[in-house]
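::Amino acid chain::
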Amino acid sequence: MSDAGAAPAVAALPRGLDPARAARARWRRTVTPVAIIGAALVGIVVAVALAAPVLAPHPPAAQIAKPLLPPGATHLLGTDEFGRDELSRLIWGARVSLYVGGLAVLIALGLGATAGVIAGFFGGWVDEIVSRLMDAFISIPSKMLAMVMVAAFGSSVGLLILTAAFSYTPGAFRIARSLAVNVKTLEYVQAARARGERLPYIARVEILPNMVNPMLADFGLRFVFVVLLLSGMSFLGLGVQPPDADLGSLVRENISGLFEGAPAVVMPAIAIATLTVSVNLLIDSLSGRSTRAAEN
């Protein structure tokens, strides 16, 4: 009876212990065509933005030709309503959008993850105070907060970064807190607490590494929100101010010449759409990876 019951487990043992086969299976499940397309598009946008001083054919603020020229050999995307090379401004605008969006999300996730781990780990009155404080922040619409801040202190890149960061910190806190509450009940965290380890060690070694994939997916999602918020503010004239430009302000400053020079308006809009879609594709792959890891 005991031999018959042990036979299936023994037969399944070699397959379960084959590390090469398991690694190939995990790779096939993780590296999907959607993940490859999203990573490639994001990589191209980031590479172009970082190499803006080399790739841009002209300085972004230089008036070098007639206004609203059509695309041609000299100016691949034409010129804007002030005679500036549209390709150069598009490359530099993508750089500004990535810089502001990335830095704002890093600040938001840093603050939100720190507060979320503290609230989730300690619980009780600490969790209650921090959660209610974040509820107060999350009740303020992000665009309204941005408009109030710009009206009070004027528009600047630093102010836009801080405003976007504070707007999306409560959402990052909610994600981090829920993850920390789930992770702190697991055996290895309980063992670390029983050994007398302090919170900084437990957070750095036991909790945060197990929050990486969901937080990366949240990073991508909030980055899209920040880029769209910045683009909307710039389109309203409250975002990045001339002579600097981001993708949203490129649409705004050329909207009056839409019929004479459509590429000056259409190309920045396509760049915004490409950036957000590619980041969303990458987010989907990361979310699917974390879900499959949890199921396994």
Remarks:
- The domain at 32-295 is CATH 1.10.3720.10 (MetI-like fold).
